[in-house]
Design brief:
Length: about 220
């Protein structure tokens, strides 16, 4: 009969918590590379559908996918050549377009962090480029984030917000909240959702590390 030592118990608990705390939730086509468009550094390629996402807006041209991360515009996004990302408001269409996707596999009561990259890819009139994120579950918003305001020369930035799951699934939405319509194109890329470790979990992980260190010294 095996006897589980206190060290082993702590180790098992740490492994269990670690797997939950660092679990990433699947976001389909999170980097918008599912549709291969080749290398086009000059213009956005309009697509009828974006794999994994649904678009709403005033015109079908309000959301496009751009192939290549360094378009010949007033500011450099800093994206690598061949990278693809969604472009809101391309061609001076109306702002307010949205992309949304149903997210599943959530643990009720668990806090999650949403991370997304916003790219100021064209800004001819020095307007503010901005994309906001929101997570809706059971008909109510349970978390939202206002993207960093970007102006000429800012390039790109990563924005985050958190929510606590009230159901096993919900809807993740991104909205083009840029100022003005003409002369401003805003990109969205690299979306992720990860579980946030609870304070008690973080403490136990630290205790587990200490236990392993003490065991090695024996």
């Amino acid at each position: 009969m095996k006897i589980i030592t206190p060290f082993a118990s702590i180790g098992l608990a740490v492994l269990s918590l670690s797997s939950v705390s660092h679990a990433a939730i699947t976001v389909i086509n999170s980097d918008f590379s599912a549709q291969s468009l080749g290398d086009n550094s000059w213009a956005a390629t309009t697509v009828d559908t974006i794999d994994g996402w649904t678009f709403t807006g005033s015109t079908s041209g309000s959301v496009n996918i751009l192939a290549d991360g360094e378009p010949a515009v007033t500011s450099n996004s800093g994206k690598a050549a061949g990278d693809q990302y969604v472009v809101f408001n391309e061609g001076g269409s109306a702002t307010g377009g949205t992309l949304y996707q149903t997210i599943t596999g959530l643990t009720i009561g668990q806090q999650y962090e949403v991370s997304f990259e916003v790219i100021e890819m064209f800004n001819g009139n020095n307007n503010v480029a901005r994309i906001n994120g929101d997570f809706n579950s059971l008909g109510s918003s349970i978390g939202s984030g206002v993207g960093t305001d970007l102006t000429i020369g800012d390039g790109g930035t990563v924005s985050t917000f958190t929510f606590t799951a009230t159901d096993a699934e919900g809807v993740l939405t991104f909205t083009d909240a840029s100022d003005g319509t003409s002369g401003i194109d805003t990109g969205l890329d690299n979306i992720s959702i990860t579980a946030v470790p609870e304070p008690g979990s973080a403490a136990l992980l630290g205790l587990g590390g200490l236990a392993l260190l003490l065991r090695r010294r024996k």
